Amino acid sequence: MDEVYQSYLDLEEKIREYDPDLNASRLRSAYEYARQMHGNQKRKDGSAYITHPIASAEITAEMGLDEDAIVACLLHDCIEDTKATYEDISKRFGSTVADIVEGVTKLTRVTYTSKEEEQVENLRKMLIAMAKDIRVILIKIADRLHNMRTMNYQSAEKQREKARETMEVYAPIAHRLGMQKIKWELEDLALIYLDPLGYSELSAKLEMRMKSLEGFMTSIQRKISSRMDEYGIKAAVFGRIKHIYSIYRKMYSQHRDFNEVFDICAFRVIVDDIADCYNVLGHIHDLFKPLPGKFKDYISTPKANNYQSIHTTVIGTEGIPFEVQIRTREMHHTAEYGIAAHWKYKEGLTSKTAGEEKFAWIRTLLETQQDTDAQDFVQALKIDLFGDEVFVFTPQGDVINLPAGATPIDFAYAIHSAVGNRMTGAKVNGKLVTIDTALSNGDVVEILTSGASKGPSRDWMSIAKSSEARGKIKQWFKKERREENIIHGKASFEAEMKRNNLRLSDPDMDDLLPVILKKLSFSSLDDMYAAIGYGGLTSVRAVNRVREELIRVKKQDREKIQTDKLASAAPAARSTRPIRGIMVEGLDNCLIKFSRCCTPVPGDSVVGFITRGYGVSVHRKTCQNYKNARARGEDEGRWINVSWGDTAGETYETSLKVLSRDRGGLVLDLATALSAAKVKINSLSARDLGNGNALAYVSVNVKDLEELSALISRLEVLSGVTSVLRSGAET
Ligand code: MN
Question: How confident is the model at residue 342 (pLDDT cuts 50, 70, 90)?
Answer without folding.
Answer: low
